[in-house]
Amino acid sequence: MGEEEEVKLLGTWYSPVVLRAKIALRLKSVDYDYVEEDLFGSKSELLLKSNPVYKKVPVLIHNSKPVCESLNIVEYIDETWNSSGPAILPSHPHDRALARFWSAFVDDKWFPALMAAVVTKSEDAKAKGMEEVEEGLLQLEDAFNALSKGKSFFGGETIGLMDICLGSFLVFLKAREKLKKEKILTELKTPTLYRWANRFLSDEMVKIVVPEIDKVAKFIGEFEDSAQSVASKS
Amino acid sequence: MGEEEEVKLLGTWYSPVVLRAKIALRLKSVDYDYVEEDLFGSKSELLLKSNPVYKKVPVLIHNSKPVCESLNIVEYIDETWNSSGPAILPSHPHDRALARFWSAFVDDKWFPALMAAVVTKSEDAKAKGMEEVEEGLLQLEDAFNALSKGKSFFGGETIGLMDICLGSFLVFLKAREKLKKEKILTELKTPTLYRWANRFLSDEMVKIVVPEIDKVAKFIGEFEDSAQSVASKS
Fold first, then answer.
1. Least CA distance to A79: which residue of chain B?
2. Which of B62, B64, B70, B76 to mutate to test the interface with A (most CBs of A within 10 A)?
3. How many Cβ atoms are within 10 Å of A50's Cβ, its own excluded?
4. Does the first or last residue of chain A, that is N or C, have fewer Cβ atoms within 10 Å of its Cβ?
5. For position B55, what pLDDT does the model report?
6. Which domains does chain A possess?
């Protein structure tokens, strides 16, 4: 990376999708300025200008040019600093297509199902939602076997796109386990994925940037309390 | 492409997202077998086996390996037949990130807004929805100016990812114009995008694979009639 490079990341400390950008930057040993956004207060002018369509974090700003959407940012980082650190996308087009397919599955199907099951007040809807989440985990366990080819990560020997994508949500799962004593990812049902999760969270590159589980659990707890208090007043 | 290559596309003739795969294969001069699926009847064993997660078209099967999801397929085609025809993704990482960002915008935000506005029975919801669709078109007009850099297509001199992504929906827009006499993309509001649309649909590579507007209009009309008749019976 040349002297003149300017890299800035707009994020919030607790966001799983911001964590994706942080992990990718760490894997590629990219130095950057981090700007914490206050999404509950007022968003910065820089954020509004850099991501006028969604006004969301993360935004990566590289030499004044913004890149939005977390998986898009991870691919951008991989392509831009392609000679530094391990490749985040596999080299073969079919493996790349699989990594992109399963990452989209996590973002478009599995995590939305989890969020819907978590927030619903109906016990029936929650039970049905959690069934879908569990079915998704079984599909992801199969995907792990197909992508990892017997190695440690979805990306093979090293952390790849799909590890970053699914791995970024592990903090949320662990925080909910602490808070609600409900286990979502279990050794019994998806043993391979369970072991992968521990391996991912113990990785040196990940440990450096992952927020503390206790702090995230406290944050989620307070957020849910305030949401409930708003709901009961309305 | 070697003699031993086997390329198969599972699709339906009227599907805009299947059209994406067809355009990409044409741009790269790839010979393939096309299999028409009957989504209203029973899906083929091959489709269910190749796309067990979504059971949807398009699916590209290359040497027995399936690739699912239309934009994923287009990227796969670009990467696999990278020395044949024009590059579908731009070469610079930032331009690639922009093409991916706006393609995701079309699929996740703009087209769903259009579909919601089209199917709703409430006049209020329709008016509000069409406002969102028009605002999206203004954003896409800006995106065209940023991506095309004064050239003919989002992809510059040649058709790229974003041309294929948004262009695939033009048949649907034209068919609705015929059917309902409502214009969605107009010269008055988004002149640059309007001219791009005509240029895209007149392109030789596109014309070869695009379904007939009249046939699509008839299909949509019949589909809506049968949906209404089902709704009135229930």
1. B93
2. B76
3. 20
4. C
5. 96
6. 7-80 (3.40.30.10), 93-215 (1.20.1050.10)
Q: Read off the pLDDT band of B139 (50, 70, 90).
A: very high
State yes or no: pLDDT of B225 exceeds 90.
no
**Looking at CA atoms only, how far is residue A44 from chain B in angstroms?**
21
Q: Which of A53, A72, A105 sits opposite B139 (nearest CB)?
A: A53
Long-range pairs of B211-218 with CB within 8 A, sequence gap ≥ 24: B211/B13, B211/B14, B211/B19, B211/B171, B213/B171, B213/B174, B213/B175, B213/B178, B214/B178, B215/B14, B216/B14, B216/B171, B216/B172, B216/B174, B216/B175, B217/B175, B217/B176, B217/B178, B217/B179
pLDDT tens digits, A106-143:
999 999 999 999 888 999 999 999 999 999 999 999 99
B59-62/B65-68 β-pairing: antiparallel
Q: Report whether A211 contacts A15 (CB < 8 A).
A: no
Q: What are phi and psi of A35, to 5 degrees?
A: -115, 115
Among B69, B75, B97, beta carbon nearest to A72: B97
> With contacts defined as CB-CB under 8 Å, which chain B residues touch A101?
67-69, 72
Do B93 and A73 count as a contact with CB atoms less than 8 A apart? no
**Nearest CB to B76 within list A65, A93, A105:** A93
